[in-house]
Amino acid sequence: MTRFVDVRNMVRWTATQGPEKIITGIMEYLENDFKRWESFDKTPRVASHTPFGVIELMPTSDRETYGFKYVNGHPSNPSRGFQTVTAFGVLADVHNGYPTFLTEMTVLTALRTAATSGMVAKKLARPDSTVMAMIGTGSQSEFQAMAFRSALGITTLRVWDTDPAAMEKFVRNMTPLGFDITVASSAQEAVLGADVITTCTADKANATILTAELVKPGVHINAIGGDCPGKTELDAAILELGEVFVEFTEQTRIEGEIQQMPADFTVTEFWQVLDGQGPGRKSADQITIFDSVGFAIEDFAALRYVRDAVVGTDFFEEIDLVANPENPKDLFGLIGALSPVGS
Amino acid sequence: MTRFVDVRNMVRWTATQGPEKIITGIMEYLENDFKRWESFDKTPRVASHTPFGVIELMPTSDRETYGFKYVNGHPSNPSRGFQTVTAFGVLADVHNGYPTFLTEMTVLTALRTAATSGMVAKKLARPDSTVMAMIGTGSQSEFQAMAFRSALGITTLRVWDTDPAAMEKFVRNMTPLGFDITVASSAQEAVLGADVITTCTADKANATILTAELVKPGVHINAIGGDCPGKTELDAAILELGEVFVEFTEQTRIEGEIQQMPADFTVTEFWQVLDGQGPGRKSADQITIFDSVGFAIEDFAALRYVRDAVVGTDFFEEIDLVANPENPKDLFGLIGALSPVGS
């Protein structure tokens, strides 16, 4: 049988544990997996693009466990009452190829994306950061806020979104959780005095939601929204202001902010910072840029965290996904006995 | 909600309908999809190889519906009590990216592989074929027999497998269904007088289970088992005896029997035969070879067939795979309300 965490159980589990505790837990799994980065099978995601959006499969394996995520990105979905991003994920045992774990990943992707941003910011943002600007207050925004409180203790937020209702929603969700929130009237106003700038907008376009003159020395930019060809958020000039950190260079050159730059533009893969192979932040004045697109190993860490965390709880059920005939060579025997002759 | 056909329901449905009726139904969907071959997004499968076996994702899309299959291949599984091949598959709506249908595909892959062989043989085997040799009587063999009875009316089978128990199982399963079966003592003996030769063995090796001198004029070879790099069944000389038909050339050059041949070895994609662009069998004496590796469009056809066929039945259930917050931008609202402050 395959263990299955559906949406109802994921929501119950997250609400019971508290999202910040889960984000912190995923962050630990992420750090462990980024430290053993070179031991993973890595391949850019397999994307199917249409005018409506994209559907992607993101596989990886550490040679013991195989995992993949199905995820879509449809920017016009919210206007039609659907989620921009939905996802589910699977873990399998490499030794026999059987799927062992299936879970919704719409909620879990939000948690792992935030955990990734938090893990990176712990190393790259100034440790004395206290103020974060958030450009874009859609589905991902609250999770980002949680992650930055966990990683850096940030509780002061300056937010901006072109949709006033999305900002109201953000304030409504986060004020009761102890955040001090300023609603700005522009991106320019939101970033005033910010130590960290998080961009998480959804338009599938080469947008410029942040220009170079707005980025002050010492800032850490957490660029989440630009994550597929033709979808960027930052003025290309920003990428020249500091050092750019990526997950997996080969994928980010196609999908990230650096798709705007030449193919030999210098970047650092973040696992090298964790591994001690590359420097992180070099000075208080340096501008650091995390050009995040999301990578399969992050889903792998999140999937394993949930799988391990729900053991012994009632937050999963078992489903019958893999045929298991008594004689493995007799698949037909499962059905043959019941078939009428010549049917 | 996502419709889900688990193993129990797939087996109940197949047993109730009869596997031959389902194979025939899938064959119709396959023919329709092969005829519109050029309208599909096609990409070679994404494979993760380990010493134990392979795990693959096989996506495709017709720009209305997206589908993919997860499938493993672990040749040593049966000796440990597991299936060589297990699989599950998903359909999604391209317009919003939501997964709409999930099903087990261990049984369904066996049905669709057989249906593909049958569809191809209807065009390539001699119409007066009456005898099929089957080399390999593992999990796929009974389904192949069903497909050839449906496609060509073949009821006389000559079988060979290195595992006597597998042959006994085949005879036990198929004799009651009206087949006339001769158990041979070698591959050489099995192919005597056969109009069609089906090879479906599981060894992950460059095996030679059939040599050129055994292949007589007019025979159709249905080569199923060689389907990944390093796994072939036919003597390379056989491929020079007649015309080789493939599903998707780019993938078959990597995975099929023709991996033994130069990169410019001439093949015909089978959809071209259905489409009238290429000839099928040209004469009663010609040797035709279907170098089958399995392609995503076949799973797409099978998935859609099951999805459509179970409408209005109790052979599926609904699962909660996609988070559906009232406000699509308020994913956090699903869980936020229940989280303690500062948790």
From TrEMBL, chains A, B:
GO terms for molecular function: ornithine cyclodeaminase activity. InterPro entries: NAD(P)-bd_dom_sf, ODC_Mu_crystall, ODC_N. Its EC number is 4.3.1.12. Pfam families: OCD_Mu_crystall (PF02423). Coiled coil: none annotated. The keyword Lyase applies. This is Ornithine cyclodeaminase. The keyword Lyase applies. Keywords: Lyase.
